[in-house]
Amino acid sequence: MGILEKISEIEKEISRTQKNKATEYHLGLLKAKLAKYRSQLLEPSKKSEKGEGFDVLKSGDARIALIGFPSVGKSTLLSTLTKTESEAASYEFTTLTCIPGVIEYNGANIQLLDLPGIIEGAAQGKGRGRQVIAVARTADLVLMMLDATKKDVHKELLEKELESVGIRLNKRKPNIYFKLKKGGGLSFNSTCPLTKVDEKLVQMILHEYKMFNAEVLFREDCSADELIDVICANRVYLPCVYVYNKIDQISIEEVDRIAHQENSVVVSCNMKLNLDYLLLSLWEYLNLIRVYTKKPGQPPDFSDGLILRKGVSVEHVCHAIHRTLAQDFKYALVWGTSTKYSPQRVGASHIMHDEDVIQIVKK
């Protein structure tokens, strides 16, 4: 029996099993087995030849993976937002390899990767799905392109495919401390009441992974699935924007309903509707800020800002300008929304805001 057959057997048993107090241990074990087989499926065997992937050099200030089912308008969006031409046609599987483009927005270069259409069963390697998903894991943001005329069927299928390969969309890492030990058995603790798991279930899941000595501390009420994610330690937590294309083909009431869903943006690539709002949303989801530099006695240089992540300190800005600057740093003068008055003299730990101006004074 191959891994694929084992996975489908376990999935069938999970769907057959009723969820109640009596079956929670059994379900927990099945989920642990399923996660184990899926990770075996993704890690190529030692004997096999190195698989052919999409080697795209990471460039720019951030990377967005554009994924979706075939023929939803991904290539059209890439051609519209970037200067890259991706072949677009009304038949499925027009794009067969990974096509990178660069969005120039607010002075930042954001790499947008148009990945081939994902089909159902991509996680098992169908339709180049495994290479597509491997590239998606390296992105800072997933842009999921959906067809507004096809309800939410595509969205659920894509989320399921990504979930099965360890990509968690719009979720944060479970607050569980987990550490393997040399001996001493299982040390289990929690700082809050647990309603979804108990010590016995944790022990059974760990035994499934051949782990007998470990320290586990739950800092929040997590499920068995979240514990498995922590044990596997290869999960990627990414923000995701759901972009619904072809809104010119549905009613205004339906557009309004979709637009009010969480993390959703409605666009029409053919009629170029709402693309400016999409760019604004991507900027916010990527947590990017611009910081401008100023030399003593000269006006700020607004033509060439530093593109950094939200929450960076003055020390990060020093490293971004030059790696030796932080060693000679004395203090900085900052103009902008991060200060009480302008200019304010600040230290290396001061947190910068978008469009702040900084002048660094050396020792």
Automatic annotation (TrEMBL):
<dbReference type="InterPro" id="IPR005225">
    <property type="entry name" value="Small_GTP-bd"/>
</dbReference>
<dbReference type="InterPro" id="IPR006074">
    <property type="entry name" value="GTP1-OBG_CS"/>
</dbReference>
<protein>
    <recommendedName>
        <fullName>Developmentally-regulated GTP-binding protein 2</fullName>
    </recommendedName>
</protein>
<keyword id="KW-0547">Nucleotide-binding</keyword>
<keyword id="KW-0342">GTP-binding</keyword>
<dbReference type="GO" id="GO:0005525">
    <property type="term" value="F:GTP binding"/>
</dbReference>
<feature type="domain" description="TGS">
    <location>
        <begin position="287"/>
        <end position="362"/>
    </location>
</feature>
<dbReference type="Pfam" id="PF02824">
    <property type="entry name" value="TGS"/>
</dbReference>
<dbReference type="InterPro" id="IPR045001">
    <property type="entry name" value="DRG"/>
</dbReference>
<dbReference type="Pfam" id="PF01926">
    <property type="entry name" value="MMR_HSR1"/>
</dbReference>
<dbReference type="InterPro" id="IPR012675">
    <property type="entry name" value="Beta-grasp_dom_sf"/>
</dbReference>
<dbReference type="InterPro" id="IPR031167">
    <property type="entry name" value="G_OBG"/>
</dbReference>
<feature type="domain" description="OBG-type G">
    <location>
        <begin position="62"/>
        <end position="287"/>
    </location>
</feature>
<dbReference type="InterPro" id="IPR031662">
    <property type="entry name" value="GTP-binding_2"/>
</dbReference>
<dbReference type="InterPro" id="IPR006073">
    <property type="entry name" value="GTP-bd"/>
</dbReference>
<dbReference type="InterPro" id="IPR004095">
    <property type="entry name" value="TGS"/>
</dbReference>
<dbReference type="InterPro" id="IPR012676">
    <property type="entry name" value="TGS-like"/>
</dbReference>
<dbReference type="Pfam" id="PF16897">
    <property type="entry name" value="MMR_HSR1_Xtn"/>
</dbReference>
<dbReference type="InterPro" id="IPR027417">
    <property type="entry name" value="P-loop_NTPase"/>
</dbReference>
